[in-house]
Write a structure and sequence with these properties.
The protein has helices at about 1-30, 70-75, 115-130, 145-155, and strands at about 45-50, 60, 85-90, 95, 105, 140-145, 165-170. By secondary structure, it is α/β, with parallel strands linked by helices. A 5-stranded mixed β-sheet has the order 1-3-2-6-7, sandwiched between helices. The longest helix is centred in the N-terminal third of the chain and has 31 residues, at about 1-30. It is elongated and about 70 Å long.
Length: about 170
C-alpha cells in the first residue's frame, strides 16, 4: 500500500541520515591523524571571447554558481551597448556536472582553502586580461550572483586600471 511505501521511505531516509552523520564524525577523527598537503596544480580556464570591431574597451564577466562561460556570455550580450565592447566571459576553475545532467558548470570557490582559491582565481583573471585586453583599453567587470565577488576582486586586485564594476544579485 502507499502508506507502507511511505513508511519504508521515511525509515530509509532516517537510516541514511544517521549513516551520513557517523561517516562525517569518522572523517573528522581521521583528519586529526593525517597531514593535509596543499599542492599547487595547473588547471586550464575556459574563456569565451566575442571581439568587437573598433571596441570601446573590454567587459569581463563572471558567472554565478552552477553556471558556465556560455551563460555568462548570454548575460553580457544583454548589456545595452555590448556590441561596441569586446566581451570576455570567464568560467570558474572548479567544474562539475549539473545534477542529473551532462552539462558542465562551475563555481568560483568553496570555503575549503578559500584564500588559496581566491589567489588562484586572481592569477587566472590577470592572465585572461593580459591575453584579451589591448594596452590602455578601458576595462569593466560584471558579476552575477557568486561572480559578483570575483568582479569586485578583479576590479581591485587585477594589477591594471579597471574603470568600473557591475554587480547583479550578489551579497
Amino acid at each position: 500500500s502507499a502508506k507502507s511505501v511511505a513508511r519504508s521511505c521515511r525509515s530509509l531516509t532516517i537510516r541514511l541520515r544517521r549513516l551520513s552523520i557517523r561517516c562525517s564524525i569518522r572523517a573528522r577523527r581521521m583528519q586529526a591523524d593525517h597531514d593535509v598537503l596543499l599542492v599547487p596544480a595547473l588547471t586550464h580556464g575556459r574563456v569565451v571571447v566575442r571581439r568587437a570591431h573598433d571596441a570601446r574597451g573590454v567587459l569581463v564577466g563572471f558567472h554565478g554558481y552552477m553556471e558556465n562561460a556560455a551563460t555568462g556570455m548570454e548575460r553580457l550580450l544583454e548589456v545595452p551597448g555590448a556590441e561596441r565592447w569586446t566581451l570576455v566571459s570567464m568560467q570558474g576553475l572548479h567544474r562539475f556536472y549539473r545534477p542529473r545532467s551532462e552539462e558542465v558548470v562551475a563555481s568560483w570557490m568553496t570555503r575549503q582553502d578559500r584564500e588559496l582559491m581566491i589567489a588562484d582565481n586572481m592569477e587566472y583573471a590577470a592572465r585572461v586580461l593580459d591575453r584579451t585586453t589591448p594596452a590602455g583599453a578601458p576595462v569593466l567587470t560584471a558579476g552575477f550572483s557568486q561572480g559578483v565577488a570575483m568582479a569586485f576582486r578583479c576590479a581591485v586586485r587585477s594589477g591594471r586600471p579597471v574603470h568600473g564594476a557591475m554587480a547583479v544579485g550578489g551579497d
